[in-house]
Amino acid sequence: MMSKIFLRTLQSVIALLTRFMQSVQRKRRRKYVEKELMDALYKKAVGYETSEIVEEYNDVGDIVKRKVSTKYIPPDVTALKIYVEESDRGDLVRLDDEELIKEKERLLKLLGEMERNETVKGKV
User: How many whole angstroms separate alpha carbon 82 and alpha carbon 38?
Assistant: First the structure.
């Protein structure tokens, strides 16, 4: 009887740990992909240089001519706008629950101080 309860409990713990590890892996992948996307967006927003290679081949398949040129891609205003918006939003999105609570408390404290200062100015 005890062994069946222990076995069920152990299976429940294993299932919970498995789900937890899968969640952690998804979160890590998501952060990696998000960083890669933000890096690409930044690159597009500020402009960049890229190499362009043009090769000509003969009938046999040997390279006859190869031209390497550098091409400048100018900054994209739309990408810049999106990058700025996402960067501002991303600071809050990347915070965990505890950090969000601390940020909320900090902002509420700041708001309270601002209200007190306004009240004091109104009385003076």
Answer: 10
